[in-house]
Amino acid sequence: MIPIHHVIALFGGLSAMARALGHRHASRVQGWRDRGAIPARQIEAVLEAARRLGLPLSPADLDAAPADAAPGGSGGTRRRASRPRAEAETGRTSPHMEASMSPDEPTPDPSETEPAAAPAQGPTETDARTDARICGAALAIAARSGWRAVNLRAVAAEAGLDPAALRPRFPSRWHIIARHAALADAAATADLGPPDPADSIRDRLFDVLMRRFDALNQDRDGVLAVARALRTDPLAAAGLLPVAMQSMAFLLEAAGSSAAGPVGALRAKGLLGVWLAAFRAWQHDDSPDLSATMAALDHALARAEGPARLLARLEGFAGGLAGGLAGGLAGSRRPGDAATESDHAATQQDEDDEPFVSPSG
């Protein structure tokens, strides 16, 4: 059995799952999430929708609630407000957490004693589902008891797995966090399609970063517990910095901006600054539509536009300079240069072929 919020994420979010089931609004699916299970009479419909979409979901993954079970909390359902710039305008919703990419090479906390070897092979479909289950278990423990309580044995018990099965793919708990980052990246970019030329880079980055926040929101309390732990563990934070940079480069490319070369690396660093500014707002944003997070992200992207334009001009200047130098060097060769170089090479070969004669001989 996997948690209901992971089932919803597998379909691509509340709205996407509602559409797959033929519901006009997401409020019914939201109610299932609030009560923590899918009603028994809806199980077959959910499985049929998953089969139709090719999603890896089986009856054993679902935990049915009684058909007449009442929602938890206040006794009603909460409808997520439409997102003004990402979902309302583009019609995009939070994508699923299924990993469709090879895991980023995780960088462990230097204080950990386990080796830092990355998984040798990319995940199969079963691996991806198991990884999501393991990440969810680790974050559930962190949410309940804090990050200090997270270790491989506890995670294995939470996920219902043999601890020996975790070690080959996750030598330490920090590898689990690195894998969760890759899952969030995959969720943020699932079904994006090619960039629309009518959209600005800023709008596309806004969309993909908000999708990533939607993915993190599935395990919000656990992610916040990890963030609190990192504030008091600078070595672990430094160890995870390459993972964060890989994520930002991946999201830049997904939004249609190059992350290649020195200028691309600077773009990724700048986007990491934007992400962290929005993340600070997200930590305190309990609104149903993440309005405070959206405002902070929009503001951070606006501030980054000036440096981004400067980087674009720098990249264009560097490209033009390189092209000019290459053309100048090619044009400076005289017609006889090739023949001269050929004769010199032949002469050198003749000299190399002669036997060595000592000065005394």
Question: Explain this structure to me?
Answer:
- The protein is mostly helical.
- It folds into two domains: 4-65, 434 Repressor (Amino-terminal Domain), CATH 1.10.260; 118-313, Tetracycline Repressor, domain 2, CATH 1.10.357.10.
- It is built from 15 helices and two strands.
- It has helices at 4-11, 14-20, 27-35, 43-53, 87-90, 125-145, 152-159, 163-166, 173-189, 201-217, 220-231, 234-254, 261-282, 291-331, 337-353, and strands at residues 38-39, 64-65.
- Strands 1-2 form a two-stranded parallel sheet.
- Strand 1 (38-39), helix 4 and strand 2 form a beta-alpha-beta unit.
- Helix 2 crosses helix 3 (27-35), helix 9 (173-189) packs across helix 10 and helix 10 packs across helix 14 (291-331).
- The longest helix has 41 residues, at 291-331.
- The radius of gyration is 27 Å and the shape is globular.
- Residues 64-123, 338-342 and 344-361 have low confidence and may be disordered.
